[in-house]
């Protein structure tokens, strides 16, 4: 296996007496989709907060692209190429879709302490932003205010913003959350296209989507990773089946 | 044209005012004060409307600028080309020193911290015995401009204030449209998203705070020259409240709203106080009604009219 792009070792986080992340270790190889699944309350959200840098773990390390980033906040990890999308859509509603993506381009191309020239007239920012929108099929809505987009389009914009960062790893927090059946289908198509070009860590609740997309799966139960393997092996794993008893059938 | 006609009309009226038979002294004095408050309100708009930072201590910036005039006057330095940059720099330095603490917070905490720093500046000014303490300081005279006593000329002073106000509005617009302004506006709407793409909002907010402070310092320098008198009341928190009110009355949707709000505020205050000594009883309810019924503030009036016309 190639040098992992993301490596988590011995990660622990407690809230009061509850171990929400309990000695979590796994590695994400570059290329393709590595999914993290788990029943409700397994600690997926807490884990993603620790991976993206919005929550400090009590113990353990997060290594990203060969570098220990455990102590770095969200914006520093973003600068290193870790792009996260949010479970609850987080865009800038007053900006157009294009300007949302252009802000992300701006973050990685030169200083933003420039006070005079209109940013909206910078062709290079706009071109890169448009390319990102195009990758998720949102180019036709570039001029629309982000706040006026449909829910599915906002999910697409979330992806476009992450792509505009030219990330080394996409950290997608339930990108299908709240999407209807048609929107889900469209988003899965987009993700299938992206997995050929990007390394993706996907935290997702939708089992069918995960098994359709993932190259490897880690299963999180009560804060612990009980298995990391290829989808077929995960599907057959008795411990995983037991964990999901009474939940959605493991597809 | 579209939405731009209102600010253009207001600036045209201000430019024409001296020739409209209004040149008889008193009204020009009021207009100069209104434009100076407009300059201060424009700088505050950059924080409130641009960066989403609601400051209740902005009068302190203005006061630092005014007291810079006092300190230099006391030292017999009265050249505006020296005084103005010093006043702006002093206010900007004060802004950086207090902003370094304040911009780490947001919302109510930001309001309270700016209020606290404003009050500290107020009490400091009141304790400056050498500059008159509570009683204030009467300037030897207005500053000279390039060695000449131009600022004493009403017309020159009128157009100086107008020019600086227009420059502040245009400069503010350019600032908000720049890369810097884009980060600032984005962080107002959604700071978490801004961090997630790799920006830390605090340094951008601090620079905005310093710029706003510097412009307010210039307003303070002009105000000191307009009144030829500076007192701690310039820094009182009520003055900060007035400035905030001008910004909200004018509308947070566009920068020139600050100018409209300041003009309306000062002229209404002046007009009503001539009409009756109980003018505050009328002024207060009028402001409340304006805020309740003018969505988007005064700057939003053209849009509201357009909508009413379309509806028929």
UniProtKB/TrEMBL annotation, chain A:
UniProt keyword list: ATP-binding, Nucleotide-binding, Transport
Pfam family, one: BCA_ABC_TP_C
Domain ABC transporter: 6-247
GO molecular function ontology, one term from the record: ATP binding
Recorded superkingdom: Bacteria
SMART domains: AAA
PROSITE patterns from the UniProt entry: ABC_TRANSPORTER_2 (PS50893)
Gene3D superfamilies (UniProt xref): P-loop containing nucleotide triphosphate hydrolases
Cited PANTHER family: ABC TRANSPORTER ATP-BINDING PROTEIN (PTHR45772:SF2), CONSERVED COMPONENT OF ABC TRANSPORTER FOR NATURAL AMINO ACIDS-RELATED (PTHR45772)
Protein known as: ABC transporter ATP-binding protein
Organism for this UniProt entry: Paeniroseomonas aquatica
Lineage: Bacteria, Pseudomonadati, Pseudomonadota, Alphaproteobacteria, Acetobacterales
TrEMBL record, chain B:
Keyword Membrane included in the entry's annotation: yes
Keywords assigned: Cell membrane, Membrane, Transmembrane, Transmembrane helix
Coiled coil region boundaries: none
UniProt key word Amino-acid biosynthesis: no
Annotated membrane topology: Multi-pass membrane protein
Subcellular location as annotated: Cell membrane
Transmembrane segment boundaries: 47-70, 82-103, 109-134, 155-176, 206-231, 243-267, 279-301
Name assigned to this protein: Branched-chain amino acid ABC transporter permease
Highest classification ranks of the organism: Bacteria, Pseudomonadati, Pseudomonadota, Alphaproteobacteria, Acetobacterales
């Amino acid at each position: 296996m190639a040098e992992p792009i993301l490596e988590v070792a011995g990660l622990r986080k407690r809230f009061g007496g509850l171990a929400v992340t309990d000695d979590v270790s796994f590695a994400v190889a570059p290329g393709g989709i590595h999914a993290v699944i788990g029943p409700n309350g397994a600690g997926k959200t807490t884990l993603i907060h620790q991976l993206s840098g919005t929550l400090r773990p009590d113990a353990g390390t997060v290594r990203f692209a060969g570098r220990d980033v455990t102590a770095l906040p969200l914006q520093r990890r973003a600068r290193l190429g870790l792009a996260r999308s949010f479970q609850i859509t987080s865009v800038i509603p007053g900006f157009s879709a294009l300007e949302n993506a252009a802000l992300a381009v701006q973050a990685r191309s030169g200083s933003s302490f420039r006070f005079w020239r209109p940013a909206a007239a910078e062709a290079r920012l706009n071109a890169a932003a448009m390319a990102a929108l195009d990758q998720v099929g949102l180019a036709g809505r570039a001029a629309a205010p982000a706040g006026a987009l449909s829910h599915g389009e906002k999910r697409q914009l979330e992806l476009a913003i992450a792509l505009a960062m030219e990330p080394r790893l996409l950290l997608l927090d339930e990108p299908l959350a709240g999407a209807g059946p048609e929107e889900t289908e469209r988003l899965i198509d987009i993700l299938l296209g992206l997995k050929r070009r990007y390394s993706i860590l996907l935290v997702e609740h939708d089992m069918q989507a995960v098994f359709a997309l993932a190259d490897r799966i880690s299963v999180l139960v009560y804060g612990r990773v009980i298995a990391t393997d290829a989808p077929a092996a995960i599907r057959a794993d008795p411990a995983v089946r037991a964990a999901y008893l009474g939940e959605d059938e493991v597809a | 044209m579209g939405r731009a006609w209102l600010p253009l009309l207001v600036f045209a009226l201000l430019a024409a005012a001296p020739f409209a038979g209004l040149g008889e002294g008193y009204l020009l004095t009021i207009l100069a004060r209104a434009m100076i408050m407009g300059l201060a309100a424009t700088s505050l708009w950059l924080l409130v409307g641009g960066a989403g930072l609601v400051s209740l201590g902005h009068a302190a910036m203005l006061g630092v600028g005014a007291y810079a005039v006092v300190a230099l006057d006391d030292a017999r330095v009265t050249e505006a080309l020296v005084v103005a940059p010093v006043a702006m720099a002093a206010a900007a330095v004060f802004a950086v020193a207090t902003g370094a603490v304040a911009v780490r917070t947001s919302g109510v905490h930001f309001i309270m911290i700016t209020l606290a720093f404003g009050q500290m500046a107020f009490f400091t000014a009141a304790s400056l015995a050498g500059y008159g303490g509570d009683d204030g300081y009467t300037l030897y005279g207005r500053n000279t401009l390039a060695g000449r006593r131009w600022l004493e000329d009403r017309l020159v002073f009128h157009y100086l204030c107008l020019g600086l106000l227009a420059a502040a509005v245009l400069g503010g617009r350019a600032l908000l449209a720049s890369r810097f302004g884009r980060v600032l506006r984005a962080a107002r709407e959604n700071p978490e998203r801004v961090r997630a793409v790799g920006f830390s909002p605090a340094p951008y907010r601090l620079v905005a705070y310093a710029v706003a402070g510097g412009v307010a310092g210039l307003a303070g320098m002009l105000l000191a020259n307009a009144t030829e008198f500076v007192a701690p009341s310039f820094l009182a928190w009520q003055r900060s409240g007035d400035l905030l009110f001008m910004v909200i009355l004018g509308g947070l949707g566009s920068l020139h709203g600050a100018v409209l709000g300041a003009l309306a505020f000062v002229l209404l205050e002046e007009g009503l106080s001539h009409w009756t000594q109980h003018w505050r009883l009328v002024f207060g309810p009028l402001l409340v009604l304006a805020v309740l019924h003018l969505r988007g503030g005064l700057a939003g009036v053209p849009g509201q009219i357009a909508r009413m016309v379309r509806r028929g």
